[in-house]
Amino acid sequence: MRMEPIELEPKQTLFRDYKNDYEKIADRFNHHPFEESTWERRLSEIRNQTYQRAELSDVLNHMNRRWEAPERTFNNIEKLKDEESVVVIAGQQAGLLTGPLYSVHKIISVLQLAKEKERDLGKPVIPVFWIAGEDHDFDEIHHIMMKQGNGMEKMTIDHTPETKASVSEITIDQQKASSWLKNVFGMVKETEHTQDFYKEAERLLKESDTYSDFFAKVVYHLFPDEGLVLIDAHDPEVRRLETPYFSTMIEKNREMASGVYAVLQKNRQEGYETLLDSELDDAHLFYSFEGERVLLVRDEEGNYRGKNNEVVLSETELLKVAEETPELLSNNVVTRPLMQEALFPVLAFIGGPGEINYWSVLKPAFEAAGLCMPPVLPRLSFTMIDRKTGQQLEKFHIPTDEVIRSGVKEKKMNWIASQSTPQVHHLTEQVKKEIDSIHAPLREKSASLGADLGQLAEKNLEYILENIDFLEKRLHHSMESRHQHEMDQFENMEWTLHPGGGLQERMWSIVPWVNEYGTTVFQQMNRHHLSFRNDHYVVYL
């Protein structure tokens, strides 16, 4: 395995400034992500805050026993009781077989930064991954994308939950899930790893009650020796620890919401993308009502209502819920970071471009809740290249970074055009010029006899040129058929390295890579020393 960094200009303006021109948006954050002085200042902030370390450790211990976590995970959970220990944290929804590759890339990012900062600071730094089990958008996690021929196919599990419940509350339909898994593995070629991987995935699935369980078990199968600690944010035991933090979020709700809204407007005025939708009356909390997760808003009387008036609670009643049945409450994208900060001694949070965009408006919410925003680091980003695709890049002399940035569609057209002499496009352009010249006297004569005849002559020329364009397309099609093998190679490069016009990590799943290179492939990536200053890494397998 070989890994090389490449420059990859961020598409989002805010994320680009965050990485390359931080001073422009420094007022939205508490810590510069790449200054050495950041870390000692952050440790000082953590020392001034209190945490339920022993209680959280007990909850994590119980939760991870259920997932049969590795021994090193429990060692790190025990270290959490140490007042000097801190954590590096990231999170994601409980995607099937971990979902898109960027979920695994986040995990590698957490492991890398935890290892680096433990060495630099001389203190225990625990890698933590937050499973957003409270999320109810099942459509976001119920599928993976698999390469099929010259394209990608969405493999969706045939399970429709009866209610809009949190993912951690949805019991897996084992029969449908097993059928889905079989279909997924039916799309990969048989290798020395296929049967072992399939049987292990099938076993982990059967031993899982919920999709969050399945996610956790697969992650530990991929990273068995790294000491990663997983937490399901929607576990009732976790919720019981969160009572005082929910109470603060309710009591300071108006202040938090107005602060977030103000920075969001500032971002808009300065031309930054606003990926977060937030209004002044948003409570940024969910309430479980009749088995469904309901988003709360504040009304003019100070009550908390369901977005569609499903339920109405006074502030006193909502505080009572936080005290007596906190498992009925859950966070949204605004309050989830606050809950992470309240529960864990967070040395750093790691997020993708979209998450960093969200975080840019959260500073007032942290301050209103009496918390301090941790350093936010952009996650590591990777594109994996299998041997076949690597050989194709070499054959056509195409630079890897160019394909990752913009694909090969233009290069494919240029290659096809170069296979004929003269090139088809140049030939048709030449013919068009000749016809235009020959046709000119007819147009002139027609125009002299009347405006209607002049227009008819112009349309006649247009019709002739359209037929030449049609012939050019047919010639291209014929040449593509003659060179079908090469066309397939270009399509493979496109869908492997620039699928759907974007990065591989946003569409591909772990399945083809583990099937080809075994379950240790991501552990091997993690063994390299990786800098968070680099835009992107190319992984040559």
UniProtKB/TrEMBL annotation:
Membrane-crossing ranges are: none
Keywords in alphabetical order: Ligase
State the Pfam families in the record.
Answer: CC_BshC (PF24850), Rossmann-like_BshC (PF10079)
Q: Where is the Bacillithiol biosynthesis BshC C-terminal coiled-coil domain?
A: 382-541
Class of enzymatic activity (EC top level): ligase
The record's gene field reads bshC
Task: From the Swiss-Prot or TrEMBL record, give the protein name.
Answer: Putative cysteine ligase BshC
Q: Which family does it belong to?
A: Belongs to the BshC family.
Q: What does this protein do?
A: Involved in bacillithiol (BSH) biosynthesis. May catalyze the last step of the pathway, the addition of cysteine to glucosamine malate (GlcN-Mal) to generate BSH.
The enzyme's E.C. designation: 6.-.-.-
- Please list the GO terms describing molecular function: ligase activity
Q: Boundaries of each Bacillithiol biosynthesis BshC N-terminal Rossmann-like domain copy?
A: 1-380
Which source organism?
A: Halobacillus trueperi
NCBIfam families assigned to the protein according to its UniProt record, in alphabetical order: thiol_BshC
